[in-house]
Every structure is written in structure tokens, then in C-alpha cells.
Structures
1.
Amino acid sequence: MAAHFITLGSPKWGPGARHDATIFGQMIAIAVFPILLLIAVGTRSPLRGGLIAGAVCLIAALAVVLSP
Amino acid sequence: MQDTLRTRMGWLHAWVGFAAGLVLFCVFATGCLAMFDTELTRWCQPEAPPQTDTFSPRSLDRLLPDVQDLIAQGEKPFITLPSLRDPYLRLQHHDGYEFLTVPYNPQTGERLAARVTVGGTFFYNLHYTMRTGIYGETLIALAGLALLVTIGSGVIIHLKGLVSDLTLLRPFASRLRAWLDVHVVASVPFLPFIVLMAYSGTFIRARTLFPPVSYTASIENVFRTPAPSVPETPEKQPAPPSRPFPPLAPILSEAERTLGTGQVGFILFLSQSILVSRTDASGPLLTREHVDFSPVDGHVLRHVLLPSPITHTQQVLDGLHYARWTGYGMRWLYFLSGVMGAIMFASGSVIFLMKRRRQSGRKIMFRIAEGLAIGSIVGFLMATVAFFWANRLLPIALHDRPFAEGYVFLAVWVLSMVAGLGWSGLHRPFQGWKIQLFCLGTLGFFLTPLDLATRPGASLFHAPTVFAATDLVALLVALVSFQMARRL
Amino acid sequence: MTIFVCTLLWSLSLLLQALHEPKMLRIAHLQRPAFLKPVRWTRFALPVLALMLCFLERASTAVLVWAATFSLAAVLVALGWSALARYREYFSMGARKNL
């Protein structure tokens, strides 16, 4: 979901035209997805991993909602 | 077992790797073949002479009646110009599954009497859609993400021995040890390539996984409109009879003034314009820069080049993934890296099954998994070689020949999958592996005699590279298969 | 040509690296050769030389060619080393039988 929100919000905070910003968002989303999954599974407690991934997801979702 | 980062990553690596690995094996294998799609198309059309005359721009006009026929059928045809890889002019169009190509003499523009075939583009399409359109693209993009996760977890597991075990290969050690070494040697040295391919490949199809609209809207769209995966043929509206196109030689010369001499790759015919596009071989940036001309009088409409930094990055990723800028040396390196990627997934799947055989060997899920592994790994390769057999053995006058070739491929693959599941279900998986490896070996071994017997003008002393290379690779696959069947 | 030379340089470098690894020496029944000490920096210099060659040929694709030749060289060294280990194993078994 975090990766999806990054792509969804990228036209608002990304550089250049809408098309460029979406591509930029997709570039980030593809890199973020495996990193977040590895962090979520890799932490000692599943709760901590879930919290980290959830926090990133929340920030990305906020960027979609709050960005002007 | 102690719960450490390594064990957690081991779990992730094994399960995500096996689940996506069977698809990714096919993706890597078809990727290797797609590297030589043009050459394989030439193998599939042995009637076309290996040497041709030099290209004359005037010959382009001889193709225009055929272009107009295709436009009248609602297609979007394009002409690819001769290149170092392919000496012919080719008229191409997408039939909803693959790009079908017809070769023409580059000097006279006469159509060459070559069989109709799906050719190497079959593997190109299979590589990213599995012949199921948008659903296949989404599945493969998802597998690409799984590949990135598997690579990450694999590196963490193997971090300690990353340098010291880089060239450690013990094929004569115990079976599990030997397979683990093969897995490591096929993956660690090729990490740069695999990461590049996984990232750029997923990025190219990112739109399917990360659309710029919300998932709810995307899902609604899927149910609202028919998926574009269905072959477009029934939906294609025959275009009204078009006016004759202007002569193409002046258009080509005008385009070369902008793009550079010898930099034109293909000419695409649309209803509103004629697009003359830069060749993909011009450099590592896949710019798809094009000059558009009016189809009425041939005057320049516009010159399109996207210059922003983000677009440049996208072009670099596309260019590195498609690798159309490469010479033969680099192309073979890409091929080898792809082969090693496929070996990485095959060996990974074998290790996954070996480790669980003692504990779960009798469980139904294990048997299904092993049956699928047999069908996906050996069965896929067998279907590939069967495709080349079908190309040479199917009657030349057969109606819908390209489809028939594809059906032979799919039939052999499905048959192999069913046989694999059968043998595995009967608790005799080794029998299944051995029989299929033997069949693969036999098909591969006899591909060279088949080629020599069915290629017009073939002789042992004059074997053009395209044919010799394909036959030799098939022979190598056969020898490896026989050896593996012997050692199982 | 660049690909060939780079593969050669990488192979030499990886071979020297393998000669520095106790595990690799053990499986091939080898002792660490005496000439290694004076040339221990060569294994790091050879890849740099290969990279320079790639840049001289075409800067835009240099890193890609460099990485690809590294992969090829690693496979070649791995195959060569396993063949050597097998040969040495036979050799040492034969010597033991003769004793």
C-alpha cells in the first residue's frame, strides 16, 4: 500500500509534469516495496516490522491527502 | 531453531523464491531467447537467403501496397529497415499476440518467398505477457517485485560468504552441497545483472502494479471495459480505403537530416501520420525519438523527443533492459547472464524441494509443487525446442501457421506439466525428471539434423552463423540434459 | 576485443583472489603459493585496469560491460577451479594408493 500511495501522490510532490512525476513515483515505489517487505519480515518482532511499514504507508498516504 | 535475521530471511527467500521462481525461470529463459529474437526469426525462415543486396530507399515504395492492405484490415503496420542483425526489409504488425514479420529484398522491395512464422518474437511476447495480455503483464511485474525481495533476502543470508564463496563450485560433492554451490555461482557473480533486469523489468511494467490512479478505480475499470488482453482482431474496424502514401525515399532522407544518417530504425504508418523513428540500436538510451510526416503530401509535421531528466532515466532503464544497442559480444553476455538467472531459479527450486522431501515428501502439496517444478523447468525447455521442430515440420501452406506453432509450444508445455504432476503424484518424481530430461535431450540433439534436412541449400561446410549458433545451443542443452538425467 | 581482454583481466584477478582464500585452497588440495605476497595488490589493480579499458572504448556503457565480464570471469574461474579440484583429488588419491 505504501508503494501504491507513493505512486498515487507523486504527481503532487514529484518533479516536472504529471507524466514525469508519476514515472518518478513508480521508480521510488518499486525500490521501496522490497525494502519495506525485508524490513517488515526482518525485524525481531513482527509488530515492530509492521509498525515501520505502516508508518511509511501513513506518510505516503498523508502526502496524497495533504499535498496542495 | 534460533530465530535470527538469517533464519527469517531464509524463510522469506525460500518461499517467495519458490513461488515466483517457477514463473521467473520461464521469464529468464524467454528473456535469453528474446535477446536473439531477430536471429531466431531468421532461423525460422530458412528460405530467406543469408546474403542480400544493399538497401535502396526506393525499394520502400514497393512495400506500400502491402502496407495499405494491412491498414485496410485495421492494423498498424511498420517497416523495419535493414540493420547489422537483419539484412532484410521487414513489414511487421502486431496480431494481438505477437509481431508478425514478412521479409523483403532490401534493394528491389520484392517480397521474399519465406514461410509465415511467429519467429523469435514469440519468446519476446512470452517474456513479458505469457500470452495473456494485461493479466500476464501484471503477474510478471509481480514476479519482478518478488525477485527483488528474493535477491535482497538472498544477499542477507549469504553476506558472510559473498566474496569467499564467489567462485566456489563443488559439483562432485554431496547432492545438496553441489546444488547449493550451483545456486550461489549462478547468482552471486550475476547480481549486478539480475538486480538491473529485475528493477528495470518491473519498472517497464510498473503501470500494471502501481497505476497512477487508486486501486479501487483500476479494479472498477477492469470490470467496466473488456481487458485489452483479448486479441484485438474481432474488435478491429476495417479502415476506410486510404489515399496512396507519398514516396518514402524523400521522407527517409528528410528524417535522416534530423536523426542522422543511418539512424532510422523503422517507419510506422498511422492514419494521421507516418512516424519515422530512431533505431533502438543507436545507443543505450531507448529514446524512440521520431519525426512525423503527413500521409497526404509527406511534409514534416513535428519532431518528437522527450528531453526531461526523468524521461532520460526512463530511457536508460529501457535501453539497458531491451539491450538493442549491443553488439554481438555484449548480446551473448546478456544471453549468458539470462541463462545463469534461469539456472539460479531452477537450482533454487530443486534445493527447496530437496530440503523438504524427507519431512513433507508424501504430502499432496509437495507432490503438486514437484510436478509443477518438473513442468516449469524441463517442460518449458522441451516446449521451446518443440516450437523449433514445429516451425520446420508444419506444412508451409497451413492456415494460421503462426498460431499453430504457438499451439504446439503450449501443448507440449501442458503435456509436460500433466506428466510431471502424474509422476510426482505416483511418488516417482525422479522418473518424471529423468524421462523429461531425456526427451529434452533427444529433441535438442536432433535439432541440428532437422535443420540441415529442412533448410534449403544447407551444407555442412556452409553454415551461416544464425543457424549454426541456434543448433549448437540446442546441442549444448541436449548434452547437459543427458548428463543430468544420467546423474539423477 | 574489449570484452575478451576485460574477461581475461577479471579472470586473473579472481584467480588470485581464489588463491588467497583458505577454503578454495583446501578443496583443491593446494598450499598458498609463495609468489602471492608480492603480487597481492594485483588482484585489486586488474579490475581497475579493466574498467579503464571499458571507459576508453565507450564511456556510456563501460560499467555494464565491466560488470558483465566480471560475471563471465567468475563462472570461468569457478568451472576451472572445480575441474582442478577434481584433478587434484584424483592425483592425491592415486599418490595415496601408491604409498
2.
Amino acid sequence: MVALDIKDMEIVYRHPDSLVDISTHYCPGCTHGIAHRLVAEVIDEMGLAKRTIGVASVGCSAFSYNYFDFDFVQSPHGRAPAMATGVKRSRPDRIVFTYQGDGDMISIGAGEIIAAAGRGENITVIFLNNANYGMTGGQMAPTTLPGMKTTSSPNGRDVEQTGYPILASELLATQQGASYIARRSLHDPKNIRMAKKAIRLAFETQVRGLGFSMVELLSTCPTNWHMTPANATKWLEEKMLPYYPIGDYKVHPELSELKV
Amino acid sequence: MQNETLIAGFGGQGVLFTGKIMAHAAMAENLQVTWFPSYGPEMRGGTANCTVVISDEEIGSPQVRQPHAVIAMNLPSLDKYENQVAPGGYLVINTSMVNRKAKRSDIHVLEVPGTELAEELGDKRLANSILLGALLAEAKFLKVGSVEKALEESLHGNKKTMVEINKKAMQKGADYIKGK
Amino acid sequence: MAKELWKGNEAFAEAAIRAGLQAYFGYPITPQTEALEYMSARMPELGRVFLQAESELGAINMVYGAAATGVRTMTSTSSPGTSLMMEGLSYIAATELPMVLVDVVRGGPGLGTISPSQGDYNQMVHGGGHGDYYPIVMAPAGVQETVDMVYGMFDIAEKYRSIGVVMLDGSIGQMIEPAEMPPMLEVRKDIPEWAVRGGAGKDKRILTSINLDPAEMEKMNLRLLKRWKEVEKNEVRFAEYYMDDAKIAIIGNGTAGRIALSAVRTARAAGIPVGLLRPISLRPFPVQAVQEVAAQLDNILVVEMNAGMMLEDILKIVQGKTSVEFYGRIGGVMPYPEEILAEIQRIAANPAPIKGHPRDLWMERIEPVINQ
């Protein structure tokens, strides 16, 4: 056997500088960890860590500030876009992003997100859609699929009573102030790579001062979906993707020429 | 020494402006002053009023139940405020817009055809200054010079041309009441 | 600087700007809107931040974000808007960030009226949202006092890393009085040590209000309370009028206090020995001043533009040592001096201690007045 000199090897995979080297509180199989990593990698690659301020929200990601290794504030439920606005307007040369779940962003915070997009607020929103309220134990969210069982829709979401899922990317893409709106999924490596590119483009939008950017990331919640991580991934692909098509919903012309 | 004037009329008759001119003049005389408007639902009916309290000590209430003087620019204002004038006080009536006499006999009633006199000066919007001129000629709680200074300092830009004509209107009101 | 005529709402906006305000966020609501409009012209002119938010929820959370970066920031609103801001205020208090709120109070409950009221006393003085904390609350009685108070409130808020509230009623917001503006301060260039700025690794700062460990949260609460004791020690303010030889004391704050002053003067002219204690800081409350009044005087008349919110605080302080009566107007009605004068005359004629709760007795007296 020949001893390999590790110094001569190319590093193809490493811990991002912008992630703290600790275990997270997220459940096994949850895709929050992947989303965190993608954001951290993009911040590292763009060299933004020393001028980024994150805005955590309320939900499973309330404690995301413990995992990202740069400045963070934590907002009331749904108000992250407003708080981010206050940060960005006060320090316009900093990079400001919110990290929000579906209950936070498109239920209690629907007003704030639409207003921020309408204003063309130069912030980035990372939006995790896992079709339920995770932190409080799996209640129905505005994103819960028709017929889907949750602890507050035990017989399955009845659209006659509770209406239909809100399509956040489609909705925000109608806003003139929005410059980059994309939906991606975190269910397999190919889609994860696509998600990273979208996150990169979202931050590029902000760095270029083009206005509001948002990336919706379809995510799994094995614990509250009562599935194994593998089955949850399969469920996302089979059930969520048809309802929430991945794609670019709004791309500023200046971004479409950009290669990332 | 405290003096209160309530000015009331339709929106557009310069009621709030006249109050502000009085406040400005009082400040120029180193007196304490408050200008207190009616605001809200009362304004919606097209009527406006404000109370100007002038004093040589710290002013308490900015609104008074029995003002020392009332300037009634129209009939609804006369109907509403005639009874409130403090005994011995002044009621200035714009007779151009009112079809009745005052009922009170325990106060000084100054009847001035403000709108008509203003039209003689070419602008019926000067009725407010004519009535103020009449009031100050009789009640004398502000110096004419301070009011003129207030006009000069309040009307600037494209309103500057209104300074002299307002001074004239005040004089016309004073002459009218003295000539009676 | 010479005195100029200022409308209350515009005066406090200019005073805040002169205090070095860097970021203002607000939402239109009567009777405060002139402040928002004034800021919308003046702040951009000075290269500072102005933004009309989507709601009072938005506005207070924009203030939250701005305060986290260490800039001097404020909002202004009126009662229904203040109710909406309670959530944000509680978070800001828990995150220990300084900010200034000007609440131009109107009549409630509900959408209520847009007329002057002191109905926010409980929600500010005893509240400010959920949890154990107090905002610092000051109540001016005129335009100059409002100017001075807003100008000074930023320093106070920063000293204690607390919320500073200037609570005035709609009449002060709408009235014009001469006021002298304080000098224009330079906008702060440095960033306070605790503020987020974009720092990574060992320079990382987290500003949050959540700590799921109750033991840690308990320590944090204790820290806030200990800081509050300092506020109580240093920031009590009140004004006294004709109190030296008074036998009857009126206690009223803000506009109710200044209306009472007119009544006190008239009563004095008629030989009634009455004085006025006007609390300026409502939280911390001038407890000692009220205790001294209770120990020395025969009668207290509390006057408010609500149904006796401050009255309850005074009853607790007085502890039955002297007779306390109450007079108030509610829902957006301002009392006239004559009403308070009649109360003074009634008490002077019969200073014997009352039997029953002062609010109950006032309700009996006020009902015919209201139904007139």
C-alpha cells in the first residue's frame, strides 16, 4: 500500500466557514440542515460573511442563528421581512437575508412578505416549505396539500372548509418589486445543486442592488409527516412537486446573463 | 391677564389662518399662546373652528367654555357660539353671511359685513382679516403692529403679495367699526 | 434659538431629528399623521432613513431591525396603532434595544374616536405587551415640553437600553404653541458595542429574545428588573403648582393636568387652598411626591381623560391615608376647567372622607353630565 500525502489532494468537500461546527437541533432527515449548508456555502463563495446580517424567524429555524457563524437577529413570528427592512435601510451596505418557514412567511407573515416584495426591498428571503407547522408539532399550514393529514386536519385537509395551499412563489412573482423568485426542491442531489445555484442568484440579486429576491425550498419533515427520511423524500417528489412546480418565476434580465 | 378668542366659520373662510396670525402676534409680544383647532368629525361638515388663548402666564386649558371673544363667520357659527361668549366679552358677526341679529345684550356685539367689505377690496376671502381688524380695534388685546408683523412673517413665497392687502383689510374692519 | 410656532406633531418630529434620529418608520393614523408626513420630507432631505411601513406591525419591526444595528430610531402612532405594536415592543424590550415611541393618544376602545384621550395609560404604563418589563413613559402637557422630552428621550433609552415612550394626547399633537427648538446634534457615526454590524466568527453577535431555558430567562428578567430600579432612582419627574399651602391637591397628567391648572387658578382667586401635582414621568411614577401629598393634605382629586387608570395607582400609593376622589371624561372628550372647578368647590365645601370607591361615586356624578 502506498501512503497518500493528504496535502497533495484536492479538497472537494469541506465544512463551510459560515457554519458553526456543532450538531443542530433539527430532526434526523430534515432538510433544514441542507438548506443551512447551501446558504453558508454561497456566503463563503461570495465572501460575504463579514458583512452579512441574518434574520431568523419563528418556527424550527428560530435557532438558525446558532448554526450560522455571522451576525444574526431574531424576529417575531412572520415579521422577519419588516425587521430585515429596518436592518437593511439602516445599514444598506450589509447583506441581509431572512430565513423563514411556510407558516411564518405565508400565513402570519403574509402581509410583511408581500409588502417587502412590493417595495422591492433589497433583501434575500430563504423560504422553506415543508407543508406544515414543524415546531409546534405538525399542524396544518397554508401550504398543507389538499387531503393531507396533520394534527389540526386529522381527517385530511378539506379544501371546502380550509381552502387551498397558497402558492408563494407564483404570488410574489407578480410583484413588480421582485427581481428574483425561484422554487427549488431539496429531495435529491441534482435538485440540491440546482437549489444552491438559485440561492447564489438570490444573493447576487442583492449584491447588485436589484431588489427583492426569494428562493422557495421544498423540504421534508419526516417527524411530522410520520415517515422515514427516505420515504419523506419520495413523498416530496411524488406529492409536493406536482403541486409546487420547481422553476424560475421571476428573473431580472441582468441576472439571466449571469453564469454561476 | 388671559384672553380667549374662538373663531368659527366654513372651511375656506380662513378661520384657522386668522387664529395662527393671532398666535404669531401674541408670540411677538412675548405672551404665552395656544392655538387649538377642532379636528376630526367636526371638520367634515365643512365647518372649522379654533381657539386662541393668550396669556402672560403658563396657559392651562387650551379650550374654554366661555371665550372672551367669538368671531362668527357664518350663521351656524353664530347659532352655536353666541351663548358661549363670556359676559362683557365680544361677539364679532360677519353680517354678510348671517340673516339675524344677536340675541345677547350683556356683551359687545360688533356687526361687520365682512364679506361685502372684502369684495370692495377685490377678494372676498379677506373677510377674516376684516373681522379681526374690527375685533382688535375694540378689544385691543393685541397690537395692530404685532399682527402686521405676523402677516409679514407668515405669508411668504407666492403668498407674499397677500401681506399688504390683508393689512388693508384689517384697517378697513377697524375703520368700519370706529365709523359706526 | 428664538421661539417659533409649532404644531405638536411636527414639533416632536423636528425635535427627534435634532436629537440625531437616523431612521424613522411609521404608518398613517390620526391624530398623529402630521409627524409621519413631516418625517417623509425632512429625513430624506438630511440623507436619513424614512419609510412608510405596511402597518404598525411592520413599522415597529422595522424599528426593531434598525435598533439592532445601533442607529437612533423611532416610530410614532396613535392608540390603535400602539395596540398593534405591543408585540414588537415586548420583543424589543427582551432584546434590550433602545428606541423611542411617541404615542399620540385618542379615544377608545376599538377604533373609537380621533379625539384626545388618556386611554392608553394602562397599556403603556402597566403594559407594553407580554412579559415582565416596563417601558419608560413620560407625559408632556404642552408643545415645548414635548419637544424637550422627545429630544432627551433618546439618551435615556440608550442609557438603560430600554424603550422610551412619550405619551401625549391628541390635543397636544394638534395644537400650536411657541416652542424653542434645541440645537441639531450630529448623527452618530460609531456603532454601539452590542449592535449587529456584519461580523463573523469571534466577532459574531446575536440579538434575540428567545431563550428556552427558564432558568436563563429568569436571570435575564432579573437583570431587566434591576436595571428598572436604576430608572426608578434617576428618572422620576413631576411639576407642582400652588402646592406650598394647599389643603386640596389635584393630581393630573398631560392635558388633564393643564386643564386642572386653569381650575386651580380660579379656585385660588376665590380663596380655596388648592394645588396641582402634575406627574410627568408616569413610569417610573412619582410615588414619593404622592406619598408626601397623602401624608400632609386632606383631599386629593385625581383628574384624567380616562375612567381612572392613574387613579388606581394613586389609591395604591395613598393606602387610605387621605380621601381620594376622581373626575374624568372618557372616549375622547376633554373636560373644561369649569367642571374641575365645580369638583374643587364641592370638595372644599365638604372635605369629609368619601364612602365608597371614587370611581363609583364619579360615575354617579358624571352620568347626568354625559347624558346632557
